Amino acid sequence: MRAAVVNAPEAIPVCADFPDLEPWPGRRPLRLVGAGLHHVVRALASGRHYGSEQAYPLVPGVDAVARTGGGRLVYTGLARSPWGTMAEWLATPFEVDVPAGADPFAVAAGMNPAMSGWMALAGRREEAGELGTVLVLGATGLSGSLAVRAALSLGAKRVIAAGRDPEALERLCGLGAVTVALADAAPGAWTAALGAAVAEAQPALVLDFVWGPVAEAAFAVLATPGAGDGSAAIDYVQIGSLAGAEVALPAALLRSRRIRISGSGVGSVSKAQMIGRLPGILARFADGTFDAPYRVYPLSRVGEAWAHQGRARAVIVPD
């Protein structure tokens, strides 16, 4: 079958013939409609991601929108290595119907970014019964902006969106979020800006898509005396690390607050939980709560797609 093929770590994929996939027991192969080229796809294919098996050649791709033999449009993923989702045919262990009204390419582009925040938000609401105030760090990227929209749609009392892009912050403000600009400022200024934003209500949940010095600024705010009720629990969820892979964690924060620091990624949520929460995300794409800009590339141009940059997410489709 024709597929995008990565032949070595850090290699640019090429369109080539790849051995036919091994079907999952009792499941028929699906025909590709569109597979999103997400940050995690590049990281896994290059061998830099903690989940990479570092076995080559491989077909990249973690999820996709596909067509069943009966014509149903479905969202799917979790393909078995070395077969990813950027191929003419897919063999996967699950499929969830894409609802009417949802743009299949927007779903392909946006489901993976949306899942990162949604899983943490849904988990917090199931555990605590409500979301309270939510702080999103890195709110102007695709994942972060979808997390802001998700928090608002799930009933958060207050959503604080912190990020670098002023135009994106303006759009999020229009949706009802309190915005904090982190562009062109030193970490000390970030701490002051975040401190002012959380003064009215300490966040019950922090979704961190950037980590690094931005996280350290948030830690300084959360550890400040008078920054809310010290008895109130805080869930701090680390999701991405675009600003840095490591942080300095102050001991005072751990001693002065009931804070739980965890991660959201491969392995942090069971497959059954993840699949069970997918219909809620898909429904938001159908009703217009979520959207994701995209640019379509055929398999024969996967090398161009790999180099694609900008707000729109590359989506690989069959030729």
TrEMBL record:
Signal peptide: none
Gene Ontology molecular function, alphabetical: oxidoreductase activity
InterPro entries cross-referenced by the UniProt entry: GroES-like_sf, NAD(P)-bd_dom_sf, Zn-ADH-like_protein
Protein origin, superkingdom: Bacteria
Protein's recorded name: NADPH:quinone reductase-like Zn-dependent oxidoreductase
